């Protein structure tokens, strides 16, 4: 059983999400006021669902405030599907977003896909182009430094590195990493890739290549 926290000022939405996810066997706690949420509270949960548009403190602000101390997946519930909003959310460390209005099936599939990915337990490491992947701890390391990837960023990097030289479309990457397909997936992958590149650029690394008109691949060589 996974433990989830849902934060939304809409009581009806909270009741719907709680009832839906409890049917899958999860323990679901809810809050209506983001300003009362502290990182220490969030650390006990396996996944957070944050509404973007809340009057007291919006989901973006809350994510920014807690992300450095919270290691679980963070998903946004949002009616804001514009690219600028998605860029902002992923830049703050979100792992995914669910656009309102959403179906019950989509909510269940997205949440459970992220939770399944959390419990995978590979037992080996992988080194590619200066990046070392600890696949047990789900950590990416360059030299002596651990790269602060979100769950989604790490999963995409690991998948590309495991299949070095193979080109994946945005849709294929999303399905491979999260286990399902839905509207908006391409935007999620694009923003995750941007963030991965920005974090590796600090170490003069650029292992992910864009294959124009197709998708992305991890370079076979060590071009910096």
From TrEMBL:
One GO process term, biological-process aspect: regulation of DNA-templated transcription
Keyword match Transcription regulation: yes
Gene3D superfamilies, A to Z: 3.40.50.2300, 6.10.250.690, Winged helix-like DNA-binding domain superfamily/Winged helix DNA-binding domain
4-aspartylphosphate, modified sites: 51
Feature: DNA-binding region: 123-220
Keyword Cell inner membrane: no
GO cellular component terms attached to this protein's record: cytosol; protein-DNA complex
One Pfam family this sequence matches: Response_reg
SMART domains on file: REC (SM00448), Trans_reg_C (SM00862)
InterPro entries, sorted: CheY-like_superfamily, OmpR/PhoB-type_DNA-bd, Sig_transdc_resp-reg_C-effctor, Sig_transdc_resp-reg_receiver, WalR-like, WH-like_DNA-bd_sf
Entry keyword set: DNA-binding, Phosphoprotein, Transcription, Transcription regulation
Domain called Response regulatory: residue spans: 3-115
Protein name as annotated: Stage 0 sporulation protein A homolog
Originating organism: Clostridium perfringens
């Amino acid at each position: 059983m996974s433990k989830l926290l849902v934060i939304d000022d809409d009581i009806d939405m909270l009741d719907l999400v709680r009832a839906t996810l409890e049917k899958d066997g999860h323990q679901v706690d809810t809050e209506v006021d983001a300003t009362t949420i502290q990182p220490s509270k969030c650390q006990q949960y396996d996944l957070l669902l944050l509404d973007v548009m809340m009057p007291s403190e919006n989901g973006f602000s809350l994510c920014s405030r807690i992300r450095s101390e919270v290691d679980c997946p963070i998903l946004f519930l949002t009616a804001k599907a514009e690219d600028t909003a998605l860029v902002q959310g992923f830049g703050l460390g979100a792992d995914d977003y669910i656009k309102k209005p959403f179906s019950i099936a989509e909510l269940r599939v997205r949440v459970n896909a992220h939770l399944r990915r959390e419990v995978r337990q590979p037992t080996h490491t992988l080194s590619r182009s200066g990046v070392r992947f600890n696949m047990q701890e789900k950590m990416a390391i360059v030299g002596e430094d651990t790269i602060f990837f979100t769950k989604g960023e790490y999963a995409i990097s690991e998948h590309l590195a495991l299949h070095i030289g193979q080109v994946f479309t945005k849709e294929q990457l999303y399905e491979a990493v999260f286990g399902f397909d839905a509207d908006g997936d391409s935007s999620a992958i694009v923003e995750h890739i941007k963030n991965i590149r920005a974090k590796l650029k600090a170490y003069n690394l650029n292992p992910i290549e864009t294959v124009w008109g197709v998708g992305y691949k991890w370079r076979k060589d060590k071009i910096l």
